Amino acid sequence: MSQSSTLELARASYREVSLYSPNRAPARVDLSDNTNLWGVPPAAARAIHSAATASITRYPPLYVEDVKKAIGGYLGGIPPEMIVTGCGSDDVLDSAIRAFAEPGDRIAVPDPSFAMIPIFARLNGVEPILIPLADKYEVDPEPFLESRAKIIYLCSPNNPTGTVVSRPVIERLIDEAPGVVIIDEAYAEFAAGNCLDLLKRSPKVLITRTLSKAFGMAGLRIGYALGDPALIAEVEKSRGPYKVNAIAERAAVAALTEDLSWVARHVQQAIENRERMVRVLRDMRLSPIPSEANFVLVPVPNAVAIDQALRERGIAVRPFTALRGVGDALRISVGPWVEVEECLSALEEVLG
Ligand SMILES: *Cc1c(COP(=O)(O)O)cnc(C)c1O
Prior knowledge:
The chain is α/β, with parallel strands linked by helices and 352 residues long.
């Protein structure tokens, strides 16, 4: 079938979407995807290895109440009716966009921010409005409010800048936005603060989180959102049943109830190594952006060429070209210091 006839069969908005396909080629040292490079929480690994046959032959629980309870406990007592899970927080974000915007509506998104959001928007017939970050990578609330977008998406700490949205800005957006405000907290565990208390401020706040980053379980695909029960019910409808598989469900409950000190310990190491990485990058006369996540964005003259040279040395990072307000840059994940060190000395060599 020719490409043009394929395109005519699909939704018109799909013409502007290409497959999300970052370079995932294996590398000796892979600092490209912000996952937990210290490994799997041990109780989660045990749960996977001891999974019963029935967890393969039977359907998993519809909406994984046990995982909701475990998440609620981890977060200090959030009730299950304020929690919805999904196949990664990607699934939760996609479902939320579908639940809160009609085809033709708009979603306001900072630029740069999480690359999947404009894709999920278009897949749901929703138009992404990209709003440049202001000075120091802060969110300027005015254009977000002026857009009258049905959904405002914020990411804090923001991928790929690593910066957080300041309190007064978030509060103003929550108070004045016409619709739902999504706050993507995929990296909240690595930051000094978070937005959980804002759930009380407004029933229009939806916070998304994941077990893919701090919890080291990206391969299992478990994410969740927190919000007012009425909001959560709509996301759960949009998401549909059986989205968290039975093995992932067992592993998530185990990690969230038995391995919190394991997670906290590695989060602490990630934060220490992040600060150490920033110091070394500055010593190399680069200007890394101060980060509250488990990665650092560092502007460089030619990201594609440098990425290529690093790959030739067995090192993977995430290159960005012509990021708005930043230019070319490398996003480097934080891991055990031996790996970070190998990456930094290769980078020093490449930069000459
Ligand atoms: C990694 C990431 C996610 C997606 O994580 P899942 O693996 O789908 O849970 C969501 N938002 C941001 C900003 C991310 O960087």
